[in-house]
Amino acid sequence: MDYSSEDDFDNYIQERINVQRRISTRKVIRDFQNPFDYYSANEFKSRYRFSKDIVLNILLPLINADLLKVTSRGLPVPPIYQLLVALRFYSSGSFQIITGDLIKVSQPTVSRIVKRVSYLFCLKMQRFVKFSSNLETIKEQFYSIGSFPGIIGAIDRTHIPIQNPGGSYAEVFRNRKKYFSINVQIVCGPDLQIYDIVADRPGSVHDNRIFQASTLKRKMEQGIIDGILLGDSGYGCQKYLLTPVLQPETVSEENYNKAHIKTRNTVERTIGVWKRIFPCLSKKLATNLTTTCHIIVATSVLYNICRSHGIVEEIDDIGYTTTTRQNIRNTQAYNREGLLFRRLFITRHF
């Protein structure tokens, strides 16, 4: 480049120095529009599933310190906005919706945020997803539902659809309805709280096999958790897991089945409300398998927080009944000791 004089060259150098100075001193600010100010209380809750107060004072403190530890280059997303991005994904299941939302971030950034926040909420599972410390009260609450004694939880499974994971083991994730999924085991209480969750089994794995390999089964066998679970005919009948009588022959067995259906319906309702609050669970999750499992567990943690703070969505019908499913899933794994215990249980209580 030619300069007509030494002064022109000096001016050029000074201009470049000023440019670099402005770059080095510019503020690291993203173009965010504050959802807390923009949305009304109802609009905010509809989009993020929690009130502004709970997001700021309950959810953010759970993960804020860990999010601050993450090193971010360029223009970092503040922890509160990372939390809102993840909550928006859980309530919509769409990366595209979030990228067009108030918080202007790219789709890859949204994906990384959802992965990070989901993992952090997974770490809180033992704190929020657990059996009540007062099992006697739980038994009384279950008894008030269908006059079924000794119950501490209702167990069932639900399939969370996913995209084809690819690889040599992809077909293991194809369930009996011919779509790819994660088979998730849920145990709930009388107030529709989630007490236990197993969220890392492929869709082709049978319900009973998931329970047989679970930590919950070991704890019940060892008496660490004292009580009875109610499951449908997809499970093997055990002393601590009672299933319905497939072909009742006496009035007592019919009464037992009626009480069983009425009491176990809590887990059907729990799964329905859980998916209703977090629609991402009903859509094909396109994240990798590890992140998908973390998302499922993270939403169970958030669901229990919802219930503990009275944030629930009532639903009238979740599309199926326990009776219908028993007729379809006539695959009960028989256990002589369990069947004998059930016969004596029916004689004693029904």
TrEMBL record:
Keyword 4Fe-4S: no
Source organism, top-level taxon: Eukaryota
UniProt xrefs under Pfam families: DDE_Tnp_4
Entry keyword annotation includes Zinc: no
Alphabetically ordered keywords of this record: Hydrolase, Metal-binding, Nuclease, Nucleus
Principal location: nucleus
Subcellular localization: Nucleus
Protein family membership: Belongs to the HARBI1 family.
Name of the protein in its database record: DDE Tnp4 domain-containing protein
